[in-house]
Amino acid sequence: MLNKKLSIIISAYNVESYISKTIESLAGQTNANFNVIAVDDCSTDNTLKVLRDFEDQYDWLTVVCHAQNAGVSAARNTGIQSADGELITFIDGDDWVEPNYVDFFLKKYEKYPELDLVTCGYYVDMPNGKSKAKSDKQHHEFADRDEAIKQIIKMNGSVMGYTWNKVYRRDIIVDNKLNFLTDLDLMEDQVFNVEYATVADGFYLDDLPLYHYVSRKKSITHKFDIDNVLNVGLATMRTYKTIHQNSKDEREEI
Q: Which residues lie in coiled coils (predicted)?
């Protein structure tokens, strides 16, 4: 068994129709060297009950409850505080993963111990039941920091700013006091990824599709209102501020 246990953080809010598939996909993993912290963000449906039932069934699952709804960023931050694995990743409570999801990441970190970030590709599962891989052909590469950040902030591709197709080193997150910004409802994950990348070194970008992103019409990303526009603008500003500061620091070190 690989010694780099993966802590998987699930943020869950009113996903009673989806969360069972999420947990069952983890129960079917070919590599059992992981644990799961599921953070229920004060759901008003039966999400918490479903999670509690699974918690009784699986010893690798721990359920944490927020006293009040605080948003996905706060849920992920709570999960980070509870994680004990050498590696960390994030899954949304309405998505699911392929059976070799855990094994893929752990083997990459075992084979290349210098890596600080590894990505995989993903499928988009549509409401009509169809599923399409984001990338049609297999591609992977080792990347430097500049290329990794370039791929993270791109508006298309198989890397982008998501957290659920990436695995991180927990010590880098903790040592650099990284967390998700709770005043953003959109693109908080991109800001986190750029901040992480600026303090990381080894990057491996792979578009092998192992994650299933479930597209829902009620998702916040499908709502077009002034608050979303403001969130995107604020997140973009913070992203480029981080990139600029990192470039400045690197120039001063020369």
A: none
Task: Determine the Cα angle at 69 with ends 68 and 75, to 5°.
Answer: 105
Q: What is the CATH number of domain 6-253?
A: 3.90.550.10
Which pTM does this prediction carry?
A: 0.86
Q: State the number of CA atoms in the 13 A half-sphere of 216 facing the CB.
A: 13
Q: Which residue has the tokens 């010893």?
A: 59
* Tokens of residue 244, six digits: 């600029």
DSSP class of residue 5?
Answer: P
Could you count the other beta carbons within 10 Å of the beta carbon of residue 158? Answer: 21
Cβ count within 10 A of residue 125: 18
Angle made by CA atoms 14, 208, 167, in degrees to the nearest 5: 60
Q: Which of 24-33, 167-176, 242-251 has the lowest mean pLDDT?
A: 242-251
Dig out the tokens for 172 from the structure: 């880098």
SS3 for 143-202, per residue? ECHHHHHHHHHCCCCCCCCCCCCEEEEHHHHHHCCCCCCCCCCCCHHHHHHHHHHHHCCE
What stretch of H or E contains 222? none
- Minimal CA–CA distance to 210: which of 124, 125, 104, 98? 98
Length of the chain: 254
Q: Which amino acid is at 26?
A: L
Average pLDDT over residues 158-171: 95
Joined tokens for residue 14: 């009113």
Q: Kindly list the domain boundaries of the chain, sorted by start residue.
A: 6-253
